[in-house]
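Friendly challenge for the regulars: who can give me the structure tokens for this chain first? No prize, just bragging rights.
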Amino acid sequence: MTRPDLNLLVTLDVLLSEGSVARAARRLQLSPSAMSRALARLREATGDPLLVRAGRGLVPTPRALELRGRVGPLVEAAEACLRPAENLDLKTLTRTFTLRNREGFVENFGPDLIARVGAQAPGVRLRFVQKLDRDSSPLREGTVDLETGVVGDMTGPELRAQALFHDRFVGVIRPGHPLASGEITPARYAGAHHVQISRRGNDSGPIDTALQAAGLGRQIAASVGSFSEALALARATDLVASVPELYTGTLRQDLVTFPLPVALPEITISLLWHPRLDADPAHRWLRACVREVCTT
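First reply, four minutes later:
Bragging rights claimed.
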């Protein structure tokens, strides 16, 4: 079945509103002959004459009268779909946004973000979920609205990304740890017992690569999958945890933090979202809130 020309809906709406081919032509800025051809196409599409001669004018058929009340709202709805979104009214916005992050984000940035969102849009609810891997499918499938993390090889190529802040790894130990006094040299750092952090269970990482360049290697006593687990072990044992400084700020309370004695490149924490939400006014507003909270 041939799909009808939906542009005819606009013509039909004007024709039924004006009840005159000439007036409809002027309103649509068409020639009378072009308007007559459009009416012929409408008659063919609907299987009805729509407007018939009565004396010197035209009168609508019963089918035209039936359509007159239906076509106008259809055209208005279509025009609304094709207009830019209206100004966002945050005070009346009711929506739930899901944000996916590693542990540390909610603890460090959650309170300020909730306060900012609540003050501007009291009807908005934030749902925070744990980022257990780097799989981009939750963003692609729409189960997650925003995500923070490091852009890498597993990040979906279609995703939008915007840098939030730069971070660096630091060493963390309990108060009274042998490393807490004196200079922490690469050899002293490597000679301590460490907790390795890897969601994939890797035995080494960039820190080990940097140490190997100096002819050193860490002694890994335990491996965990999260920053909070590593810091819990550092708090209760003599293990050294190496974690991102800004991302774990509140998680490191009451612990001793020191710069790593090896050179590592900074990591960039980015905001990630799917392009289908790029132009959504409410989503743009939330992205701005996250950026402001994370960069102040």
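The first helix runs from residue 8 to 18. The chain is about 40% helix and 20% strand. Your move, everyone else.
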